[in-house]
């Protein structure tokens, strides 16, 4: 590799930093506006990128858009690196925020809701047998991976967005919120496993049954090592006197573990995002005092810089003028909402919950938010889905988040109970 291949000219750096600065200020500004309106901040961050992307700036001033984002391949790769760092850190922070807090009295509801969530996943898996999804395949043309992605898209629940809604409406300390968040945590762990399997399938040069078995086995093995053995090994590593990185910088050491997990996941043909998520889980289950300051610092930097840029670049990728199919969007929105709502509703009713409580659970579990967007970006970037399907999944994540916030605001304003005993 020549020196010139890893060097940026001054004008390339100028464009890169202009692009980053504009993405950052618009992401934070619109995120703040949406937050003040009691709407999910992530929607504003995506909107910031949307304004700078082909939908708005690219349409109104193609030359300016090209100058900022399409001028140089290397510059585009730098933005892509920032985007992937944002995604890795988002999943890492999400992992160490996971709290597996069970209440004995709530286990019956949690188990029922988990069983009910198999209905939407199964519906998504079966959908290609009744509707032709082949035009929505990405460049890898892998129908099995697409079926897994569709199943996840129907079943996924956003823990960050539904948590933000609960916080904004002072619902976080309720029994209802505790049950929803515990269910969503367990539920989404299994969905991330499914996504890791899907991404492993498209990484192979050719498709075979042995590769499917190998991918599934490796994914579950990586899960087991990360959640069972690593929490026992980490305390030994943390206290080792030869651990100079831990002594030099606690935050640097925690980030090292994040990137090490991601790298090993990639080597083992497991999705790097799943690796970052499990790194966060492994650190999160350590005693509360372990890395508490370091986690707070990493979360602050991630939410101030990398994560807003990630969501802004998601908006930057959206081309609503050329890649938005309104009919398919409405069809898939209805399809995902009906099956997620039906599965949750039936499960809650089978354990004798009243209609309003059951419907509240259904609305909460139908909130796709950030994980829905993460699913869309990973599936699109790895060639499982095409641009049109990517746009649809991102918009569904936004719409379902808005619907959930509106519904629970109305429920509380009218004085209805979230969950009747």
Explain this structure.
The structure is a single chain. The chain is 75% helix and 0% strand. It has 421 residues and is mainly alpha-helical. The chain has one domain: Na+/H+ antiporter like fold (Up-down Bundle), CATH 1.20.1530.20. Helix 1 (10-36) packs antiparallel against helix 2 (41-52), helix 6 runs antiparallel to helix 16 and helix 7 (118-126) packs antiparallel against helix 16 (326-350). 45% of the residues are buried.
Calculate the terminal CA-CA distance, rounded to whole Å.
67 Å
What is the subunit arrangement here? Answer: single chain
- Identify the overall geometry: globular
The overall number of domains is 1
Largest sheet, if any? none
Low-confidence stretches: none
State the order of secondary-structure elements, H for helix, E for strand.
HHHHHHHHHHHHHHHHHHH
Number of strands: 0
How many H/I helices? 19
| CATH topology annotation | Na+/H+ antiporter like fold
The helix content is: over 70%
User: Any idea what the CATH architecture is?
Assistant: Up-down Bundle
Radius of gyration (CA) equals 22 Å
> If you average the pLDDT, what whole number results?
83
**Class by alpha and beta content:** mainly alpha
Key attributes of the depicted protein:
421 residues, mainly alpha, Na+/H+ antiporter like fold, 75% helix, globular
Quick overview:
By secondary structure, the chain is mainly alpha-helical. The protein has one domain (85-413): Up-down Bundle (Na+/H+ antiporter like fold), CATH 1.20.1530.20.
